Amino acid sequence: MTQPSPAMVRAAQAAGARMADRNTSFIFNEWYVGAFADEVGRSLLRRTLLGRDVIFYRTQEGRAVALDNRCIHRSFPLSEGLLDGDTVVCGYHGFRYAPDGELIQVPSQERCPKGLGVRNYPVIERGPLLWIWLGDEAADPALLPPHDWLVDPDWVCSKGYFHLQGNYVSLHENLLDLTHLSYLHAKSFGTPDYAAAKFDAEIGEGRFALLRDVVPTTLPPVWAKPTGMEGYPQAARIVRSEFLAPSLHTVAVRFYDNALPEAGRPEFRIRTAHIPTPETHGTTHYFIVHGRDFAQDQDWVTQHMHDGLFTAFQEDVDGMQHLERMLEKTDEDFYEISVASDRASIEMRRYLKSRADAEAQARVPAEEKPVAPPVSLAGVA
Ligand code: FES
Ligand SMILES: [Fe+2]
Q1: 176-199: per-residue pLDDT in tens?
Q2: CATH number belonging to domain 31-141
Q3: 68, 71, 82, best to mutate for ligand 1 pocket (most atoms within 8 Å of CB)
Q4: CB 3.0–4.6 Å: which of 110, 156, 322, 348 could bond 208 by disulfide?
Q5: Between these two residues, 126 and 4, which has the higher pLDDT value?
Q6: What b-and-e string marks burial along 116-129, b requiring 16 or more CB atoms within 10 Å of the CB?
């Protein structure tokens, strides 16, 4: 059996050390989806996001609120308390908090101390998604990753959620190399020709895409039926799979009949927003919204695609769980070998690592940062 040389192993390990993995610290200064908008209502929804314990609810007017879940008195989870009007009452000794997180009542005394409270997190509700900002930097709505099609009525969508037993870096990597369609999804929406189809990578500033043209091909049932190309060997499947932010990856696919002349041939477009929000280093909230811009009034198409897709995504979820169990056990001999189709994901993982490292460095108090050596004046005239 061929073993790689020690030099090759060291090179692979050095390359791996520059990439984010399950142990890399989280990137907080980003918008993440904390919940689907319709999950948040007039009760307290508890959710762990990037290791932080958060509660969501709506005020009586319907405004979404996100607060830190830990009571400042004795750390009781506020999620175990109650929502009273627009305020949250701790279930232990009754401290009461306003929607901005401010402490407004201490039942055991008349005067409530001023200037205390739990952290309130900025949120933005847009279409089916409720975004939350957990970072220390100012929350800028302009930093929301692009997802206009999710609020465009031309796109008919369905949605779903998985509690993924895997880390979010592996999920992003899964999405950036769809070679796995021919194997992990061999029984669902993969086809044998997918893995070997021509591909190209686009490396941008914090954006990474893998483009794959599978032409000609036969579409799997999930796409063949709604496009009327069942069993037809001249279909085209043109895929753009793009990392847009640590919190969003969008797969956009066009289907058409490759035998028809380009001018005027009908095209069928589908998109899937894959929305990972780390829960812990080994678990991820995996929100998914899938849409199409054709046959908008055909409910059976929505149901057919939803069922087919979520069967396939369950294969990813199962696969990521297998992967996580292996990655948990890595030791100092661990290395992985990358190939050409990994280019976009390698660049993406380097980007995540550099962002995470920069944030972690910024969080270190100034007195703990290494002091730069004094500038030598030797030799200066
Ligand atoms: S722990 Fe919340 S009021 Fe005491
Ligand atoms: Fe997949």
Answers
A1: 988 999 999 999 999 999 899 999
A2: 2.102.10.10
A3: 71
A4: 348
A5: 126
A6: ebbebbebeebbbb
pLDDT(376) > 50: no
Report domain extents, the chain. Answer: 31-141, 152-357
Residue-level pLDDT at 364: 80
Query: Hey, what CATH topology would domain 152-357 get?
Result: Naphthalene 1,2-dioxygenase Alpha Subunit; Chain A, domain 1 (3.90.380)
Q: Which of 67, 92, 97, 118 is the best mutation target for the ligand 1 pocket, counting ligand atoms within 8 Å of the beta carbon and taking the most?
A: 92
The confidence score (pLDDT) of residue 369 equals: 67
Q: Do domains 31-141 and 152-357 have the same CATH topology?
A: no
For residue 313, the ligand closest to its alpha carbon is 2
The atom of ligand 1 lying closest to the CA of 91 is 2
